[in-house]
Amino acid sequence: MTSKNGLSDLLGKVGVVTTLLDAVMEFSRGRKASGLLLLIAAALSSRVRGVGFVVSAALRLYRRLGSGRSV
Predict the structure, then answer these.
(1) What Cα–Cα distance (Å) separates residue 23 from each residue in 7, 13, 17, 39?
(2) pTM of the model
(3) CB proximity list for 63: less than 8 A, separation 6 or greater
(4) How far apart are CA 6 and CA 19, in angstroms?
(5) pLDDT at 70 exceeding the cut of 70
(6) Hey, is 71 helix, strand or coil?
(7) pLDDT tens digit string along 12-41?
(8) Count of beta carbons in the 10 Å neighbourhood of residue 17
(9) How many CA atoms lie within 13 A of 33 on its CB side?
(10) Which are the contacts of 46, defined by CB distance < 8 A and separation ≥ 6?
(11) Dist CA 47 CA 62 (whole Å)
């Protein structure tokens, strides 16, 4: 059985990994600025939980609202 602290650490690591995967996908789609922003967010996520999620959600919302530019 995983302790509460162990589960918290695991979820933090999963958050960093998923943000890194988002960054790789952005680079593969040719979105360098978004990929770089997500890489920075992944690095910060190891210190501040939720940063990667917030940045990823903000980028998706920005694109969905129909900006003329691709970020």
Answers:
(1) 24, 15, 10, 6
(2) 0.79
(3) 70, 71
(4) 20
(5) no
(6) coil
(7) 788 899 999 999 999 999 999 999 999 999
(8) 13
(9) 4
(10) 12, 16
(11) 25
